[in-house]
Amino acid sequence: MKYDRVKKLFHNDFEKLKNSKIILIGVGGVGGYCLDSLQRTGLTNITIVDFDKFDITNQNRQLGSEYIGEYKVHIFKKLYPNITPICEKITPSWVDNFDFSCYDLIIDAIDDIPSKVALANKNYKNFISSCGGANRIDPTQITIDSIWKTINDPFAKKFRYELKKSGFKNKFDVVFSKELPKKCEGLGSFVGVTGTMGLTLCSLAIKKLTIF
């Protein structure tokens, strides 16, 4: 049976997971692994939002990136036929105009800070987010905490600054790395880190949706 071992782990919570309605914003290096692990855990009512196409530079870290030039959401629809794809550019305006009320959980895996701030302000009660994974090589330093308690993450620091600037005073959990970023030219990436961040984001989602 496909989900037999998942059912053994989650018992009665499996049906709750199966029936949960999720929206995943961004299916790149972090979001793609989060989506794959959510699907393999039995969550099938998932909407994904992304406007990017796969590029050859994605192939070191992104699931589905063999399909160069194809929209990410279209490829994931082929891989997971039961998902709902939305191929739209994620902006603060899009966030403001989108109805999130039917979703049990909003998962943010994008790297556009203004849009992340808009998502947090609109949905913080059922919202989780990922922070920076670039220029790191140690997946054992990835952890979960409040956005206000992140350390050694310049991306999260910028996120916090913009949240404060927007007047946001609430809290939500994020996945981040305590590892100090390596000094390198541009943004380097390692699938051992970005993939682990996606898996950790999935784990956090499951904890939020159950009493496990």
CATH homologous superfamily caption: NAD(P)-binding Rossmann-like Domain
Quickly count the helices.
8
- Name the overall outline: globular
Number of strands: 7
Helix content: 25-40%
The rounded Rg comes to: 16 Å
* Average pLDDT, all residues: 96
Biggest β-sheet: strands ordered side by side in the sheet: 3-2-1-4-5-7-6
CATH architecture descriptor:
3-Layer(aba) Sandwich
Structural class: alpha/beta
Could you state the order of secondary-structure elements as H and E?
HHEHEHEHEHEEHEH
CATH topological fold name:
Rossmann fold
The major pleated sheet works out as:
7 strands, mixed
CATH class: Alpha Beta
Assembly classification: single chain
Low-confidence stretches: none
Gap from first CA to last CA: 22 Å
Tally of separate domains? 1
**Strand residue percentage:** 5-15%
Q: What do these coordinates show?
A:
The protein is of the alpha/beta class and 212 residues long. It has one domain (4-209): Rossmann fold. It is built from eight helices and seven strands, in the order ααβαβαβαβαββαβα. It has a seven-stranded mixed beta sheet, sandwiched between helices. 39% of the residues are buried. The model has no long low-confidence stretch (mean pLDDT 96).
Characteristics of this structure?
212 residues, alpha/beta, Rossmann fold, seven-stranded mixed sheet, 7 strands, 14% strand
